[in-house]
Amino acid sequence: MAETMKQTVASILKSIERYNPANLQTLERYVEMQSRENTYDLEANLAVLKLYQFNPDKFNPDITCQILLKALTNFPHTDFTLCKCLLLESVGENETISQIKYLADILEQCDFAQFWNRVHQMPELCNRISNFHDSIRKFVCHVVGITFQTIDKNNLANLLGGIDDVTLKHWVKKYGWRDEGNLIFIANQDENIKTKNITEKIEFDHLAPLMTLL
Amino acid sequence: MYSSDDYNEGGYESYGDYEPHTGDPQYDLEYDRSYYKMPEIVKKFLVYFRNMITEGVTFEILNLYENTFPKLTEQYFENSPWPDESEVAPIVDNDHIFMILYKELYYRDIYSRVPGGPKPEQRFHSFYNYCDLFNYILSAETPVPLELPDQWLWELVDEFVYQFQSFAQYRSRTSKLSQAEIETLNTENKAWNVLCILNVLHSLVDKSNIKRQLEVYASGGDPDSVAGEFGRHSLYKMLGYFSLVGLLRLHSLLGDYYQAIKVNIETTIVPGGPKPEQRFHSFYNYCDLFNYILSAETPVPLELPDQWLWELVDEFVYQFQSFAQYRSRTSKLSQAEIETLNTENKAWNVLCILNVLHSLVDKSNIKRQLEVYASGGDPDSVAGEFGRHSLYKMLGYFSLVGLLRLHSLLGDYYQAIKVLENIELHKKSQYSHVPACQISTSYYVGFAYMMMRRYSDAIRTLSSALLYIQRTKQLFSARSYQNDQINKQTDQMYHLLAICLVLHPQCVDESIQQVLREKNYHEKMYKMQYGEMSEFESCFTFACPKFLSPCPPPIEPGSNYSRDAVKHQTQVFMDEVRQQKMLPTIRSYLKLYTTLPLAKLAAFMSAARGSERDAAREHAALAIHLLCFKHKMKNVVWTKGPSGLDGKFQSGSELDFYIDNDMIHIADTKVAHRYGDFFIRKLLKFEELNRKLHHIKI
For the PCI domain, which residue ranges apply (chain A) (predicted)? Predict the structure, then answer.
């Protein structure tokens, strides 16, 4: 079912059919399927937003919200920005959309404490997207993974949304980190992040044609 | 043909007896004269109209032409033509010029209202009347003392071409013509000859020097300086300009799309922009052209230089953009213009444009060709019948770039980049020999990358295009329309690059760095580094493409949405900049150390803000900023693969760090000066100079 849907959509997106408002229903169903089954297809979602742009009378705020929330789950990719560029100017008045935009804004600034705080205040919205919280945690782990060599355990638990010890262990294990008592060892960053000295290298090939001149 | 019913009311009972025509216009005239009595008000109108034309009061002429004439037509001549010239002439003292103009209107009225079209004699009379008019205008030794509103001049030229078209169609329906008509046509074989029409239009263009004027205007000069005695006069200037449009139409009618487009390219640079009718005509002209190319069952036998094909597609998208902007400036439109726009709502529709570009892409199989080319194969092997032809292949390729531009204008950066799959921007290929196309592609790709926060990719794309421009500078130094475009785009690209380098410091080629150190860019970059939001915004609005509203609202007088789309995209960009606001400050501190305790940096940051100390809160705030720093500086960077959307997360910025519990470890990039490239280039230059010196013979 999901697979056939995916193929139908892919064939729509390949041709000029992607601008045909008659396909909007299929595409909207596809968005709802993504929310339900924790799959993701940015290109299809952008096509939906584009159809709303071309046919403002067909604009569906509920589907738009789902697309935006799904874009949040794909951080650190900039999908949310791409969606934002395609929103109609008039959606600024929609309260829910403004809230999601605010969520994206604090998530972009990595103010995770604030983010979780907000999310807990709007459970009915975020629960529509299956696996929403864990998708965000993946992003948190991404940022932690590139920033820290070792991190305080409580700090990490807070960044991940105040999770308990068991869940924390699960995440630590998943990313191959090491529990060292109060600290979690993330990775040896020395190897990745070191001072670079760029010096000039002149290859012989560059000089060879010159030699014939001299 | 006149139907006899129509004429019964006006007392023309026996008019129907004259069919079929005698072929003798004099006969009809006598008939008219004996029966017709002109209303007093019409007489007054004619006298007044003539006086206004003699005195050259254009605004009043326009009023009489646009309003009074149609009104009187409705009132007095609803079922009959206007009075014949023999009746009008005595009223206006046999004023030769006025009579020509009057007859122009008289025949035009007949053309527009008579079902079945005018009689052959009328067609010929109208033709000779045009000849009289243009002879008068063209053969004068000094500019003629005639002033007509632009509107009239345009309709005059337009009508002239229209009547030619109508005549050609009439003549071709031989089976429907009576014997008498055929005879008339055979004896009168000079009138409405296509060479005549071309001759008239070209003479008007030449007399007015309009081409030279447009050229000078486009390069920012004063057209009057090259206009010459005739071209300075509004009558000649505008007739010349409208004749260019007439030629565009005429060439299209003749299937000479090559000429049509050539003329068309010249007419896009017009003071104040083209009129709505011209925009529509141009659109339909493009439709004709693309239909001709796309609906053919075998490739059309047309070969155009690639440079031209590129300008054709580029111009098509540009005219769409220009139309959308023109439409959005509602407050500046006249009532008549708004009505035209509301009735003509099909032309320049965004879906139409998308459809055309996609069709050209599909017809040429260009995507498949590029795919095979990228993998080292022979594109011809998959090109198909059409795609093998250079015309289709290149139109397909340029349409991809057209789509890139169109998607960017609509804020759809994902599609913009995706469209260019399998095109390797920096590699020379058989498709990349049109400089303007290469530069335009880089500009839009660079911009789209910047909006996607892929700064490394944006910087790579922009700087490689700018390097290319630097090396080939002399190509674009001559002042022409296309080169002005390129020079503007170059400036925009430097601005984009400046923005990207402030947000994502990274080393770029020395010669690019050199330009950015010049005071103009240097000052702007300095301000942006110090967090001046307004500077970011002004650089962005200067450098961004002129965005379009994807779905324009119906036009109402007074509303103005032209800036909405730009505002929206600026907003999205500024949101991003605001999120990164603290990063330059943090960077400036980190640059000074190799290791730095978190607490110490927190103290620096608070001192910078000068507020009361609260260690725990400062620490928390700093932790957030540091995470944000790492997040924003780690972006997708293209490494390999056919799609520009692909890539891996990398930290390409020159400064990086990691946190080991409470300690920040900093890694900076130190760049040694590069000399090799500089010396190699100078050596080559010297060698070239030496060679030239040897060739000089004294």
Answer: 40-201
